Structure formats: structure tokens, C-alpha cells
Amino acid sequence: MKRNWEVIRKIMIQLEKLPPGDGQLDSTSLEDRGIPNEVAAYHMLLLQEAGLIEGGGRKDLSTPYRFALRLTWDGHELLDQIRRDTVWASVKTRLMNSGLDMSVEAVRAAAAATIKELLG
Hints:
CATH class of the largest domain: Mainly Alpha
CATH topology of the largest domain: Arc Repressor Mutant, subunit A
Number of domains: 2
Shape: globular
CATH architecture of the largest domain: Orthogonal Bundle
Number of helices: 5
Structural class: alpha+beta
Helix content: 40-55%
Radius of gyration: 15 Å
Order of helices and strands: HEHEEHHH
Distance between the termini: 39 Å
Number of strands: 3
């Protein structure tokens, strides 16, 4: 499965909306937002491996399941850079025009360049 930054961003935004210490975001709960459980579970695992969220789950081949408890400090920092729709659109355009892959480092750099332009 390929990493999908739209899914990553949606998961992070939904996770941030949870009350602190009171709840979790389940991979199955994102199906009503158009993200199949298998896709959500995979991307939650990637986010956890990157240190952007805290969570857990199982890797059962028949029914993958993940849950996220909270964004980490680094997760909040990344989301703060890409939350705004106009910045996110600019990040995607910059990376597409440059021919660069959407790695975490490239997304951060493109977001920083966009934010710098907005600040003047």
C-alpha cells in the first residue's frame, strides 16, 4: 500500500479533535469519512512508527485494527504546519512541481517555505 498524505492529514486532524485523555480514534471509525479500515490502520501504523502519534492495535491479516490516543509533540508541530487548507494546497503544488516525493522532510520544508512567504 502506498502512503497517502491526504489520509495522514485527515487522521491527524481527527485525532487532534479528541478531548485530552478521554478517548481514542479507531481505524474503523474513519470509514464514515471515506477511509476504509485497512487504509486507516496502515496509515495509523505509519504515523506511530514515525513518532507522530501514540497508539496501538493488532496486525491481524484478516482484520487489521489500529487506534490512536494522541498526537505527539512532533505530530502537533507537523499538523500545525499543514492544517490550513491553503498551506496544504501550496505544499502539494510545490512538491509536485519540483518532482520531489512527499517525504516528511519534504512536506515540512515545503510548508515552511509557504509559511515564510505568507509571513512576508
